Amino acid sequence: MILNTPVFHYANFKERFAACLLDTIIMWVLLAFLGNLLNEQPDHIFIGIVFSYKGTWLTVIAGWLYFAIQESSVHQGTIGKRIFKIQVVDTDGKRISFLKASGRYFAKYISYALLLLGFFMMLWDKYSRTLHDRICNTFVLKSKE
């Protein structure tokens, strides 16, 4: 397990929720743009794209690439996480691989299926870990700098 150090501490619920909210907004804009490229003409540009047949696959693939590429990059986090100075690490505090980041993304669907309970697990976890963090053995840290 990662121990608290003078440089890092575990990201809390507010920090992670704010980063998630920002990433969600970015994803909606990205999906609207990509949906337009696919000639999707929904009644409502954001909601219609997600619930169309092409949009469902687009949402899954774009979300997977958005999260997995960024969380396995040198930045160790999405745009939202970078703004709030939080990053995803493995048990040694190192950058995670693209494969582990991919598993972490798809493990989030289990939390969704459990009525978001997997996300709220962090509220009572000693290391502020969600279900997908536990499944993939990752941690989300915040820099104190």
Automatic annotation (TrEMBL):
<dbReference type="InterPro" id="IPR051791">
    <property type="entry name" value="Pra-immunoreactive"/>
</dbReference>
<keyword id="KW-0812">Transmembrane</keyword>
<protein>
    <submittedName>
        <fullName>RDD family protein</fullName>
    </submittedName>
</protein>
<keyword id="KW-0472">Membrane</keyword>
<keyword id="KW-1133">Transmembrane helix</keyword>
<feature type="transmembrane region" description="Helical">
    <location>
        <begin position="105"/>
        <end position="124"/>
    </location>
</feature>
<feature type="transmembrane region" description="Helical">
    <location>
        <begin position="16"/>
        <end position="38"/>
    </location>
</feature>
<dbReference type="InterPro" id="IPR010432">
    <property type="entry name" value="RDD"/>
</dbReference>
<dbReference type="GO" id="GO:0005886">
    <property type="term" value="C:plasma membrane"/>
</dbReference>
<feature type="domain" description="RDD">
    <location>
        <begin position="10"/>
        <end position="137"/>
    </location>
</feature>
<keyword id="KW-1003">Cell membrane</keyword>
<feature type="transmembrane region" description="Helical">
    <location>
        <begin position="45"/>
        <end position="67"/>
    </location>
</feature>
<dbReference type="Pfam" id="PF06271">
    <property type="entry name" value="RDD"/>
</dbReference>
